[in-house]
Amino acid sequence: MSGAGPVIGAASTPHAPTGTAPADAPRTLHCEEPLRLGGENLAGEGEEAGARVRVSSPAPEGRPGYIPSVDDDAAQLLADRYELTGLLGRGGMGAVWRAHDRELGRDVAVKELRLPEHLGAEERATWMARLDREARAAARLKHPGIVTVYDRITGADGRPWIVMEWVNGGSLDDLIRRQGPLSPQHVADIGRQVAAALSAAHRSGITHRDIKPANILLEDGRAVLTDFGIAALEGDVTLTATGMIMGTPAFMAPEQVRGLTATAASDLWSLGATLYSAVEGNPPFAGSAPSAVLVAVVTEAPAPAVRAGPLAPTLEGLLRKEPAERLTMEQLQARLDQVAGAPPAPHAPPAEPAHWPTAPAQPPAIPPATPPAGPAGAPGAPGASGGGTPAGARGRIVRRVAWIGAAVVALVVASVLATRGGDEAYRENLRVAEAMGHPATFTVESKEHADGDRARVVYSGGPMTDGPSSRQWADMASWLEAAPGIDSAGMPVDPPTDASTEPPACLTDAVGCVWGTDIEDGYAEPTVLLANTQERDGELILVVEVGPFGD
User: Fold this and answer.
1) 415 lies in the same domain as 337
2) Which residues participate in ATP binding (predicted)?
3) Is 210 a catalytic residue?
4) N or C: which end of the chain has fewer CB within 10 A?
């Protein structure tokens, strides 16, 4: 579960991967998925990790379902069995505790879900389901390189907890932060252990989808893969209806950024980015905002690897944009075995940078992703309600409209290069705007240098007759759900049912009918403004803006 931190033995606060914002920094890129809740045996056919759904002893009197202080759980006894003894790590959505299993007399790790009070019922269900997914995915696997799940219990306030193996060591991310770049041989040894764990997961029909240094735990030379919170389980199709981008931007494969289905090859890309981070000391792609990192993943070559030495060809083979061109698992394991077994070169100077394919001067726009499975109005998609125009650039814009009018969508992303000025900043913002792509049937009408070095790209969706057609809106809705860096949770999804439906009054407003999501303090987050404004010369217009906005 992202935000809860790894299952670690040292009492430390988990960190984000090197080169990214801290794990507790606010962000609008989520790793969420609405999945079924339930008390099924989480281990499937196996019993060792048999996770029985049990209820803990009563919570302290007056304790709410959402705990303002993580320390309130100290010394709590869960399911009359697991006594919490110390906090191992915490984040925005959870905490990980060391606990003592009174029945078996052993120490375990317990992952707790902690939800902010402002979350709605649907978002709470999403996060609870994600914890269940993590338990189900890990419990299906039995491998020394995958953290073992022992139990799944329900707290007195209804929140789920996962009881799992306690790994007495920190994460790979902790090691990189503490020691800096690691030797190619050390990284290859870690990589081959993780590759073996991934191979077992893939054979069981599970794609991890969030491989990164923080999710690899280290204990006495053993590497353990954890956090299956956004794993894709074969046969479970409930994930595809969200339209969310799930994962950690610096370690997501290009196809994940595009909104396409993650595969085993996607995990190999993420493992490549992870190994690159370990040997170089920083991820292969960086940016001042999540949207900029996502664009770089799709359109740019990785930063040259100068320390990788014999590992460089393997990294190049993993970080290829096209999944079919990447190394296979068998090829990867053979290469890692070879590098791990080679003696290190003492006092060797940094190797020449690996040869990476050159990115095009004008990166192509990210093509629209395959529309999510199911109808646009599938359960779990947010509904629509009336409201007013946004009060400012920050905070949640809660305006929603029931009728989907002609739309101008202003996607305003916090400046990619807020500290740069002139044409350089504009060109960077234009690159991000273009890489956001556009709806399948829309065409580019103009590109403009707007105020404050903002880049504005205008697209035409074609003529309208008494409002947009269902096809026009469906194309735009699919783009909004798949475009990198966009959280479209606030958008209405029902197309017009009657061409004669009278347009809403806000259609003629100066700013149009607006709804959207968040911009967060302290992190360069995207703000999404979906404005159903007046039609222009009878056409449906889409405007994408990237650059500094507001205060």
Assistant:
1) no
2) 111
3) yes
4) C
Residues 319, 419: one domain? no
For residue 228 the two structure tokens come to 């299956």
Collapsed DSSP state (helix, strand, coil) of residue 242: coil
DSSP 461-473: EEE-SSS--HHHH
Q: Is 24 helix (H, G, I), strand (E, B) or coil?
A: coil
Cβ atoms of residues 528 and 411 within 8 Å: yes
Residue 329, in any domain of the structure = yes
**Host domain of residue 229:** 172-341
Identity of the residue numbered 147: V
Q: Which residues, 6 or more positions from 323, have their beta carbon under 8 angstroms from its beta carbon?
A: 253, 255, 263, 265, 266, 269
Displacement of CA 487 from its chain's centroid (Å): 11
Say if residues 138 and 46 touch (Cβ distance below 8 Å).
Answer: no
329 and 423 fall within a common domain: no
Q: Does 430 share its domain with 293?
A: no
Is residue 123 within 8 Å of residue 49, measured between CB atoms? no
User: How many domains does one find in the chain?
Assistant: 2
HEC assignment per residue over 397-460: CCCCCCCCCCCEEEEEECCCCCCCCHHHHHHHHHHHHHHCCCCCCCEEEEEEECHHHCEEEEEE
Domain assignment present for 88 = no
Q: In CATH, what number is assigned to the domain containing residue 257? A: 1.10.510.10
Task: Find out whether 461 and 542 touch, Cβ atoms under 8 Å.
Answer: yes
Q: How far apart are CA 205 and CA 196, in angstroms?
A: 15
- Show which of 341, 371, 387 is a domain's final residue: 341
Residues of the chain with pLDDT under 70: 1-75, 91-93, 115-119, 134, 228-247, 288, 342-422, 424-425, 428-429, 432, 435-436, 452, 464-470, 473, 476-477, 479-535, 547-551
Structure-token pair, residue 522 = 């302290």
The model's pLDDT over 100-133, given as tens digits with 9 standing for 90+, comes to 999 999 999 888 877 666 667 777 777 777 777 7
CA distance 475 to 502: 22
Residue 394 domain flag: no
Tens digit of pLDDT for each residue in 478-508?
Answer: 766 665 544 444 444 444 444 444 544 544 5
CA-based angle 104:110:114, to the nearest 5?
150
- Of the residues 292, 309, 341, the one at which a domain ends: 341
- DSSP assignment string, 323-353: GGGSPPHHHHHHHHHHHHHSPP-TTPPPPPP
* Residues that constitute the known binding site for ATP: 111
Same domain, 335 and 482: no
Cα(542)–Cα(536) distance, integer angstroms: 11
State the catalytic residue, choosing from 132, 210, 453, 518.
210
